[in-house]
Amino acid sequence: MSNSYAQAVLRTTDIAEALRVVGQLLDLADTGELEADLEALVSTAGELERLTGVMPDADWYPRGADRHGSSCEGDSPSDCLPVLLSRWCAAPEAVEVFLAAAGEVPALVRWDFSGWPEAPDAGLGYGGGRGAYVTLCVNARDLHLEEPSTDHTVYVHVKQVEARRAAWLAARVGLRVIGELQMAPL
């Protein structure tokens, strides 16, 4: 597993507003190779059934130090709840269906694309694929889905050495960064 660096740019209870901001950020990006990674922290059999219905090929891992099993070992996720369901490299069109199935479940969508544009007024050239992501965390305040919430947070990911790009991107969509730049799992 590798890491990127992310900074929040929006926190809202309105999922439509969050998706609108995600769209604005993606409009800035080089999305010639756009894909989405989907993750959900599933605690109940009903949530599991609903989400595996839209993510039948998802990998899963138990959440908690005392938990064992995984999709790699051929175990049943329903025997290992809570689990983190993950689907990498999904088509962007899968996002809406995934979010509808997630409902109140802590979940995230991370859009992966080719790069951020040049930011000459911030002294930055083209920001290539490494560190170029947008993440929407729903029903969670953090990128690890460990802090449940009734709101949703949009993060921009940048290279650590280009941290000022986060504020530049936020300004391009009429926002400001929230909090500090933080290491984010990928």
Most strands sheet:
8 strands, antiparallel
Number of helices: 4
- Estimated helix fraction: 10-25%
> What is the N-to-C order of secondary-structure elements (H for helix, E for strand)?
EHEHEEHEEEEEHE
Which stretches are low in confidence, meaning pLDDT under 50 for 5 or more residues running? none
What value does the Rg take, in angstroms?
16 Å
Explain what you see:
The protein is α+β, with helices and mostly antiparallel strands and 186 residues long. It has helices at 15-28, 45-54, 94-102, 164-172; strands at 3-12, 35-42, 59-62, 83-90, 107-112, 115-116, 127-128, 133-140, 148-158, 178-185. The strands form two sheets. An eight-stranded antiparallel beta sheet has the order 3-4-2-5-8-9-1-10. A two-stranded antiparallel ribbon has the order 6-7. Helix 2 (45-54) packs antiparallel against helix 3. The mean pLDDT is 93.
